[in-house]
Amino acid sequence: MDIQSTLTNRSGQKLNTEYREDTNPTENLEKIILQGVHAYCFYKNKLVVVYAKKKGIWTPPGGGIELGETYEEATIREVMEESNMKVLYQELIGFLDVSEPERVVRQVRSMCIVEPYGDFIADMDAEADITEMKLIDPKDYKQYFDWGEVGDRIMQRAIELKNVYLKKNE
Is the pTM for the entire model greater than 0.85? Predict the structure, then answer.
């Protein structure tokens, strides 16, 4: 599935995007920077959301891909840093190519089954600003973040993948 859309970044710029599923996000990167991840994490049928105080926004856990890191490794690290959750299972949902003025960046979206390492205190990354984590009913996600048609599709797919995983592991 491909969805063409636009988004407005924090600087107020309108950027063209293309969302894709059923394609490897590490292919065709000649002019694209594999930049970031977001993980739609489920714990006991609840969705994990985190609050970034400096940005004033709720999102699924996520962040940048570090040098030498795969998107899968970045997902595991970001989930741990931002939510103090351990990724037990992860599956690719899709990715979003964002056409910025000087470059195209790719952001990967994954579904994860998680469990807590312990109580959430704050983001373990000293430079980050995640100050709160909540477990919410997935149907209430738009009360926390609304990423339009693309976000709706990603959430729909995340729930589908979670349900397939749970059915296989009953």
Answer: yes
